[in-house]
Design a protein that fits this description.
Elements: H1 2-18, E1 31-36, H2 40-55, E2 59-64, H3 67-75, E3 81-87, H4 91-100, E4 103-120, H5 121-125, H6 138-141, E5 144-146, H7 154-161, E6 171-173, H8 177-190, E7 196-200, H9 204-207, E8 210-212, H10 217-220, H11 222-225, E9 227-234, H12 237-240, H13 242-250, H14 255-266, H15 272-282, H16 286-290, H17 302-310
Parallel strand pairs: 1-2, 5-6
Antiparallel strand pairs: 3-9, 4-7, 4-8, 4-9
Helix pairs in contact: 2-14, 2-15, 14-15
């Protein structure tokens, strides 16, 4: 009997060692405040973050804000998490906050992105293949560059200020991502000239027959503005909320996954969290990586809780 009791005790000890041990998150961490600037890629990835956090028992929320406001809000501790730092497109925005340490970069969450001027293929075939070609066709372009929402077009504005390009008299038309894309649709139907802000991941790359322009390295970086996207937080957040920090360190996307998720928003009319939920159900294996070592807010196993919450 003693031998059986010892064996049973040993077995229980092994189970205790093997089972993951989670600690509940501090109460101050229950509300997770996020933001995104209205770009569909960031709306989708933020939707994924919100869906996971809510399934884990957090009260996650997101605001639609300009990039400059996102950074000032992170610095003032009115926001906690931003999943959309595009490097190099946002280097100038982030620079003062990096220097004073008020905003911290957690990790790269997307590689293989790009961001620079784009034109329809028929414009490219007409001879507009480089930034330096734009001025020669100024009249056809009506001396306009089409950007997205105000506060997100600084690199485009920098380009028209560069004397080497001869674009000083050009105008940057700022509206929104959807407004810009609607103008691309309108002009491509008439085969008229347009130059606009293009990037990947984005369904525009399959919806439109388009080309990216060379010659923008000075503004967007090499290889057509080859970019990474990173997760950022307010200073000290990772230490204050270690369970959310673990999730943020695990949360990595790829261009194909984002393209599919963005298509649900743009082509199927889904809300970001609705698109996120569909994407999670389409590819549930991703949860195993994203939730490794992550608990619910009250300290239970995260993977099982999320699967139950989203109906897997």
């Amino acid at each position: 009997m003693k031998r059986l009791l010892k064996a049973g005790t040993a077995a229980l000890a092994l189970i205790a060692v093997a089972a993951p041990v989670f600690a509940a998150e501090p109460e101050s961490c229950k509300t997770v405040r996020m933001a995104e600037p209205g770009w569909n890629d960031l709306a989708f990835t933020t939707g994924v973050g919100l869906t996971l956090l809510k399934a884990l028992g957090y009260e996650a929320e997101s605001q639609l804000l300009g990039i400059d406001v996102i950074y000032t809000s992170l610095k003032s501790e009115d926001l906690d998490v931003f999943l959309g730092y595009w490097d190099p497109a946002m280097v100038a925005y982030y620079k003062p906050y990096k220097e004073d340490g008020s905003v911290e970069t957690v990790r790269t969450n997307l590689e293989g992105a790009k961001y620079t001027f784009a034109v329809p293929t028929y414009v490219w075939e007409a001879g507009v293949r480089d930034f330096s070609d734009l001025q020669r066709f100024a009249d056809k372009f009506e001396r306009k560059l089409y950007g997205i929402e105000p506060g997100s077009n600084q690199l485009m504005l920098d380009a028209i200020k560069d004397p080497a390009l001869g674009l000083e008299e050009w105008e940057v038309v700022e509206s929104s991502e959807q407004g810009m894309l609607s103008e691309v649709v309108r002009r491509t139907r008439k085969k008229s000239f347009i130059v606009f802000q293009g990037w990947a991941p984005h369904p525009m790359n399959t919806v439109f027959d388009m080309k990216y322009l060379t010659g923008g390295d000075k503004f967007y970086g090499p290889n057509f503005g080859a970019a990474t996207v990173s997760t950022q937080v307010r200073k000290g957040y990772l230490q204050e909320c270690p369970n959310v920090a673990k999730l943020l360190n695990n949360l990595v996307f790829d261009v194909g996954y984002e393209n599919r998720g963005m298509s649900y928003i743009m082509n199927d009319g889904m809300e970001p969290e609705e698109a996120a939920l569909k994407s999670l159900k389409d590819e549930p294996k991703r949860l195993e990586t994203w939730l490794a070592g992550v608990s619910t807010f009250d300290g239970k196993a995260g993977l099982a809780a999320v699967k139950a919450a989203i109906g897997l």
